[in-house]
Amino acid sequence: MDANGFARLLEHLRTFTPRNEIVLEEVPAPQKLASFAFAFSADVSNGKIGDEEDELASGRFVLLHEPGGQDTWEGEFRCVTFVRADVDTAMQEDPSLPEFGWSWFLAALENAECTIAAPSGTVTRVSSASFGKLSPRHNESEIEIRASWTPVVTTPSELIKHISGWCTLIADVAGLEEVPEGVTSINLSRTR
């Protein structure tokens, strides 16, 4: 795929509309990892308006393309992601939280009917305690999922399923309720 083909692919990917609580914003992509790259950030809120709105999770999605591929990728495309969300203390103390995080990642892609190769990543629990002038703040706990995978696609337009699966992952990590099958979330053009 040449620069024009990648530009057409990006036009198609930009048509993706996430559920209303997820705001996608195109951001500069890393330049030295592949010949072509595209990236966006995501912020997930509770969907309420005004003072009631709270950020629940955030993340970044990067699509890399190297014509001819790279050996470690096992393909010409590579998806790279980072997702973080606050978790309650009980969840943070659960020793199986990393395994749950990884299974959420795999299940989100599987539910979006994505075929993947060479998945890799880490799931980290982060716990912070505040001291001194920050001591009135509550202790904070987070989960961070960093992952990469090679999307196995017959046509590049199928990459939109991988973005959809990733949006499901960030919604799951944020604790959003699943949108029932057959129900369409009303989107208020929150994509930037």
From TrEMBL:
Pfam families assigned to the protein according to its UniProt record, in alphabetical order: DUF3000
The protein, known as: Unannotated protein
Species the sequence originates in: freshwater metagenome
